[in-house]
C-alpha cells in the first residue's frame, strides 16, 4: 500500500511513521509539513533515523500525492482536514482517507459546528466513525474514516457493553479521564510547559470538553436514544497514556455476572481489548507503545454503581494505532498487521 501522511511533523504523524516502519505491506510515499517543507524527517524526528530517507513535501503537491497514493492519513488540527479530504477525493476518487482529527467524526454536522466553531465544508463525504471494534463492517467499506478521539476511544470502549446490554441508567454516566501531555500535540502552548505540568495534576475544560458530544453520539446510537454524560479530563505529568474511569448506576436487579457477560460477549474475541475482568486494574504502563485497550470493572454494592476503567496509549489505540488498524480493515488485511508489538515496560 502506498501511504502518505499529511501533517507528518506532529505527534500523531510521527507515531504513524514509527508504526508503519515495521508494517510489512506499507510503503510511505509522501509526508507533508507546511512549516518545514524540504526538511529531512530525521532532522525533525531523530528517533526515526535508519527507518526513513525522506524529505517533507507540502500541501501544494496534494493533487500529485492523492493520485499516487492508496491511502492518506491526515494528522492536522481540526478544521483543516476537511479541505484536504475534499481536494484529495476530487483528485483521486479511489483514494482512502483516514483523518485522525475531529472533522469526519460527526454524522450530525450541526453538532460538529456547534462544538468546534468552524463551518463543515465537506458535508457530502460519507465518512465512517473509526472505532474499529464497534464499526468494523462499515470501516471495511469506507472511503473516508473519522478516527476517534483519544479520550473517546478509552471511554466508549469502557462503557459500550453496559450501554448495549441496557444494564445502566443512562442519566447516570460520569467519565473521569486522565491524559498524558502528548495528547495536546507538539505545538507550543503555556499549558504544556514542563514547569506547568511536572509534579501537578489538573482538570480542564470541565463541562465543556469537545469529546463530550462524541462520546454521547456513539453511546446514544448504541442505546437507541439520546443521552448526556458528565466528562472531566485531567492533564497528568507523563508523555503518553490515558486512563478513563467511568461510573454509572446499575439498573435494578442487574447482577455482577450479567455485567461480566456483557464485557465477555462484546470483547471476548477482540485481540486489542484485553479484559482484566471484574476487579481488574488497568494501568497506562501496561499499554504503552501498543494498540491495546486494557479494561477492568468493579461493582460497588453500597452505591449500586459499576465503575469501568480503561487504559490506552493515546498516540496508539487513541490515534495512530487505531488509524492503522482501520487501514488494515479497509484493505482486507489481518487487523494486527504492524501492530502486534508488546508494550514497553516498565
Ligand atoms: N495527540 C494525540 O494524542 C491525539 C491527537 N488527535 C488529533 O490528531 C490531529 C493531530 O494531532 P497531533 O499530531 O497531536 O498535533 P500536533 O500539534 O503535534 O501536529 C499538528 C500537525 O499539523 C500541522 N499543522 C498545524 N497547523 C497547520 C495548518 N494551519 N495547516 C496545515 N498544517 C498544520 C503541523 O505541521 P507543520 O507545522 O509542520 O506544518 C503538524 O504536522 C489533531 O486533530 C488532534 O486533535 C487525535 C487523537 C489523539
Ligand atoms: C491532553 C490534551 O490536551 N488532550 C487533547 C485531546 C486530543 C484529542 O484527541 O483531540 P481531538 O478530538 O481534537 O482529536 C484535548 O484535551 O484537547
TrEMBL record:
Gene3D superfamilies found in the cross-reference section: Dihydrodipicolinate Reductase, domain 2 (3.30.360.10), NAD(P)-binding Rossmann-like Domain (3.40.50.720)
Keywords tagged on the record: Amino-acid biosynthesis, Arginine biosynthesis, Cytoplasm, NADP, Oxidoreductase
EC number from the UniProt entry: 1.2.1.38
Any one GO molecular-function label of the UniProt entry: NADP+ binding
Keyword presence, Cytoplasm: yes
Catalysis: reaction(s): N-acetyl-L-glutamate 5-semialdehyde + phosphate + NADP(+) = N-acetyl-L-glutamyl 5-phosphate + NADPH + H(+)
GO cellular component: cytoplasm
Coiled-coil residue windows: none
Localisation: Cytoplasm
Any one GO biological process: L-arginine biosynthetic process
NCBIfam families: argC (TIGR01850)
Name under which the protein is recorded: N-acetyl-gamma-glutamyl-phosphate reductase
Active site: 150
Family per record: Belongs to the NAGSA dehydrogenase family. Type 1 subfamily.
Highest classification ranks of the organism: Bacteria, Bacillati, Bacillota, Negativicutes, Selenomonadales
Domain Semialdehyde dehydrogenase NAD-binding: 2-142
PANTHER family listed in its UniProt record: N-ACETYL-GAMMA-GLUTAMYL-PHOSPHATE REDUCTASE, CHLOROPLASTIC-RELATED, N-ACETYL-GAMMA-GLUTAMYL-PHOSPHATE REDUCTASE, CHLOROPLASTIC-RELATED-RELATED
Cited function: Catalyzes the NADPH-dependent reduction of N-acetyl-5-glutamyl phosphate to yield N-acetyl-L-glutamate 5-semialdehyde.
Predominant location category: cytoplasm
Amino acid at each position: 500500500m502506498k501511504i502518505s501522511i499529511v501533517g507528518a511533523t506532529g505527534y500523531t504523524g510521527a507515531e504513524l511513521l514509527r508504526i508503519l516502519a515495521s508494517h510489512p505491506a506499507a510503503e510511505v510515499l509522501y509526508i507533508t509539513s507546511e512549516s518545514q517543507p524540504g526538511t529531512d524527517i530525521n532532522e525533525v524526528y531523530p528517533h526515526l533515523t535508519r527507518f526513513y530517507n525522506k524529505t517533507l513535501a507540502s500541501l501544494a503537491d496534494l493533487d500529485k500525492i492523492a493520485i499516487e497514493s492508496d491511502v492518506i492519513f491526515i494528522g492536522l488540527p481540526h478544521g483543516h482536514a476537511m479541505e484536504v479530504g475534499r481536494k484529495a477525493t476530487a483528485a483521486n476518487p479511489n483514494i482512502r482517507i483516514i483523518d485522525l482529527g475531529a472533522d469526519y467524526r460527526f454524522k450530525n454536522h450541526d453538532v460538529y459546528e456547534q462544538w468546534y466553531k468552524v463551518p463543515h465544508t465537506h458535508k457530502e463525504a460519507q465518512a465512517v466513525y473509526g472505532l474499529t471494534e464497534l464499526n468494523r463492517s462499515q470501516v471495511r467499506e469506507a472511503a473516508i474514516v473519522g478516527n476517534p478521539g483519544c479520550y473517546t476511544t478509552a471511554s466508549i470502549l469502557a462503557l459500550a457493553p453496559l450501554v448495549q446490554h441496557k444494564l445502566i441508567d443512562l442519566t447516570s454516566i460520569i467519565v473521569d479521564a486522565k491524559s498524558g501531555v502528548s495528547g495536546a500535540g507538539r505545538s507550543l502552548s503555556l499549558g504544556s510547559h514542563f514547569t506547568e505540568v511536572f509534579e501537578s495534576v489538573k482538570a480542564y475544560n470541565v463541562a465543556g470538553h469537545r469529546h463530550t458530544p462524541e462520546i454521547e453520539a456513539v453511546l446514544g446510537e448504541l442505546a437507541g436514544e439520546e443521552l448526556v454524560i458528565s466528562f472531566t479530563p485531567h492533564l497528568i505529568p507523563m508523555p503518553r497514556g490515558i486512563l478513563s474511569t467511568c461510573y454509572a448506576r446499575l439498573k435494578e436487579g442487574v447482577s455482577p455476572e450479567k455485567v461480566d457477560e456483557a464485557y465477555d460477549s462484546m470483547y471476548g474475541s477482540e485481540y486489542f481489548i484485553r479484559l482484566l475482568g471484574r476487579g481488574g486494574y488497568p494501568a497506562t504502563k501496561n499499554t504503552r507503545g501498543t494498540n491495546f485497550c486494557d479494561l477492568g470493572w468493579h461493582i460497588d454494592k453500597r452505591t449500586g454503581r459499576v465503575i469501568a476503567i480503561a487504559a490506552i496509549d493515546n498516540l496508539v489505540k487513541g490515534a495512530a494505532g487505531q488509524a492503522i488498524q482501520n487501514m488494515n480493515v479497509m484493505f482486507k488485511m489481518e487487523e494486527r498487521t504492524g501492530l502486534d508489538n508488546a508494550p514497553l515496560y516498565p
